[in-house]
């Protein structure tokens, strides 16, 4: 059991809290994590506005028997790009930022949270 009579308050109470103590508050840590997520989402949304493509290739050998695999006429190769089709009727990708409206200022908005 805890003896409450043995506990006492400090004589000099600080007027303000040290910043290290404030940084450990759960609501501050949560707001900071939400800010990091919102910043990452902005980067992902910005990258999604730009076109992307991939280039792939293949090389191989084919033959009707194991001895024919080394023949020059049994070798094949291919190379080609791949472009994903844009979404939307306009033919262009709508920026996801316009849909989400994610900003760093809206990340930590919660009851009683001030950064």
Please give a structural write-up:
The chain is α+β, with helices and mostly antiparallel strands and about 120 residues long. It has helices spanning about 20-25, 25-50, 95-100, 105, and strands at about 55-60, 75-80. The protein has a two-stranded antiparallel sheet. The longest helix has 23 residues, at about 25-50. It is elongated and about 95 Å long. It starts with 18 loop residues before the first helix and ends in an 8-residue tail after the last helix.
Radius of gyration from the alpha-carbon trace, in angstroms: 31 Å
Bin the helical content.
25-40%
Taken from the alpha-carbon principal axes, the silhouette is elongated
Distance from first to last alpha carbon: 39 Å
Low-confidence stretches: 110-115
State which percent range the strand residues make up.
5-15%
Alpha plus pi helix count: 4
Question: Could you write a compact summary of the structure shown?
Answer:
With 115 residues, the protein is of the alpha+beta class.
Q: Could you outline the blueprint of secondary structure elements for this entry?
A:
Elements: H1 19-23, H2 26-48, E1 54-61, E2 75-82, H3 96-100, H4 104-107
Antiparallel strand pairs: 1-2
Short key terms for the protein model shown above:
115 residues, alpha+beta, two-stranded antiparallel ribbon, 32% helix, disordered C terminus
């Amino acid at each position: 059991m805890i003896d409450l009579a043995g506990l006492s308050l400090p004589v000099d109470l600080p007027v303000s809290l040290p910043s290290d103590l404030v940084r450990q508050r759960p609501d501050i840590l949560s707001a900071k994590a939400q800010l990091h997520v919102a910043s990452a989402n902005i980067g992902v949304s910005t990258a999604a506005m730009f076109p992307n493509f991939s280039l792939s290739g293949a090389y191989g050998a084919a033959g009707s028997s194991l001895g024919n695999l080394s023949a020059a006429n049994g070798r094949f190769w291919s190379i080609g790009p791949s472009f994903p089709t844009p979404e939307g009727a306009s033919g262009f990708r709508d920026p996801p930022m316009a849909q989400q409206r994610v900003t760093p200022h809206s990340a930590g908005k919660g009851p009683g949270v001030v950064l």
